[in-house]
Design a protein that fits this description.
single chain; 409 residues; mainly beta; Porin; 14-stranded antiparallel β-barrel; 4 helices; 20 strands
Amino acid sequence: MKHFYKLLFAISIITPACFNAQGFQVNLQGQKQQGMGGAGTAFMQDATSLFFNPGGVSFVNGSSIDLGVTPTFARGAFLDANTNQVSRTNSPVSTPFAAYGLFDIKDSSKLKLGLAVYTPFGSTVQWEDNWTGRFALTRLELRAIFFQPTVSYRITKKIGIGVGFVYATGKVNLQKDIPLIDKDGNYGHAELSGKANGYGFNAGVYFQPIEKLSIGLTYRSKVNMEVKDGDATFNVPESVTASFPNGKFTSKLPLPSVLTLGLAYKINQKFNVALDINYVGWKAYDTLAFDYESNTTSLIDTKSARMYKNTLAFRAGAQYKIDSHFAARIGLAYGITPVQNGYVTPETPDANRVNYTAGIGYEFGKHFKIDASFLFTHLKRTDTNIETNLSGNFKTNVIAPGISIGYKF
């Protein structure tokens, strides 16, 4: 039995929580767009469009800086199907942020340069002590920051193109208990941490065939985050320490590509509506492999099937300018989970979801502005994991109030 537990642990030592699914994909890159359900590929408003459509920012007037943060509060619960025991998370607040700088080039009204820094993946999940799934996960902390220098050019009065090079850097810390008991009755514990980096691009085209209608098409490439020299630390009974040596590991974790078609329509001078359709390439995440520097009969290199599928998300919103300074926004988004039955984990208890959003904005004269948004979503998923046999019902509530300040010059 002891060897069975060792093998089970070796196979499932790390699950793909880092940069995983919609549960860890953070679509919080602009307060105006957040208030409109996340739609912004065809609706150019300010420097935040460096993320939403690099081709469209050449149509944004002037130079500007925009800084925003969205504290995210997530509370989860798990009802075990076998014991009816309820376990809860006590996760800390996550703080995805975004910073943008968009700059006019002298002697050229068509060329724009920009720099975007944002966090499209990242979260912290922490389950209460001794919960029923502690052998799958006790805590996961992850961060991913993208740096995107961008060039945008307005070819004609109706068409703009742009591209941004992406350098991604991040880190992960994963902890779980091991089903091996010491003489004092304490379970073993594993902690894996490492830094990762990768490269990609964000390209877009913007087209305004008539004054009231605009169309955007963007492609954010897949980014392979490579973990080198990660640290694996094991706290196990003394009798099996040789079977679980501390050491290094390497891995590659794919962040999916995203193809987006956006439409925006100006109903009148005060009222705008927008729609984004995302096609997310999660199928690239079919296997998660880890290579340990030190192998034993109990700690072996692993290849764990994930079998994720490509998905769609739909984001729609509206903005109404109450007067020349004040704007109100509302939005709705629906996302289809890429996590198939049999592969739901405590790191990503993901499900098809509906996001409800709203927002406001106020401009102080010609230079300063402030925007705020609010998001709420509820997830519910019942599943039995193929590898861990963890079976039950996950529920998660997420609220995310955000705020940003901007300066135009």
